[in-house]
Amino acid sequence: MVVVMGACAGAFWLGHAGALDGRPVTTHWALEAEFRAAFPRADLHPEHLLIDDHDIVTAGGVMAWVDLGLFLVRRWLGAEVVLRSCRHMLIDPQGREQRNYRSFRPRLDHGDAAIRDIQRWVEKNATSDLTLATLATKAAMSERTFQRRFTLATGLPVSRYIQELRIEKARGLLERTTLPVSEICWAVGYTDVSGFSRLFRSVCGVSAGEYRRRFSVA
């Protein structure tokens, strides 16, 4: 069996070759929108760092060639050689996910000025009561119209957008401050620390404490 592989933007070459229709694939998380637009028939999973689909293997991220290399070693030489290789290279043999690293980048180039104004207001007022009703009223639209236009413009429903925005702010506070997780929870607009912790893990793939341990520069 011939195995074709692509890392990071290399998945685009596979797409242009017509090899990805209906196939699970990954690429760098920042290229998600561009990739989906170019290859709508591909089954894209940007949250994964590596996807093994038998004869097509893709990895996301500039440095994901390391994970791709370890995958090759594991497939043909076995887990023990992987472990020895990791020890020699001083790297972690455990699997990673792109959602550990991704950041939220709101779409602002969509052309809907009214929705863009709301996005900017939400950015400055993330701790406010950001309900659909509140935002629709501020935009002078019915809730149904606002939800439709917001989703069309940003690519996300209102509730998911606010969730992503708040978690991104929490990432920043974990990286750059020593605030307790409970205070970060309140600082980004949540009141239930347990609920916030579960949400953070579901979005980022690791706990808030583990995220801070890995990425803090404070």
TrEMBL record:
This protein's UniProt keywords: DNA-binding, Transcription, Transcription regulation
Gene Ontology MF terms: DNA-binding transcription factor activity; sequence-specific DNA binding
UniProt domain HTH araC/xylS-type: residue ranges: 116-214
InterPro entries listed in its UniProt record: Class_I_gatase-like, Homeodomain-like_sf, HTH_AraC, HTH_AraC-typ_CS
Keyword field contains Protein biosynthesis: no
Name of this chain's protein: AraC family transcriptional regulator
Organism whose genome encodes this protein: Pararhodobacter oceanensis
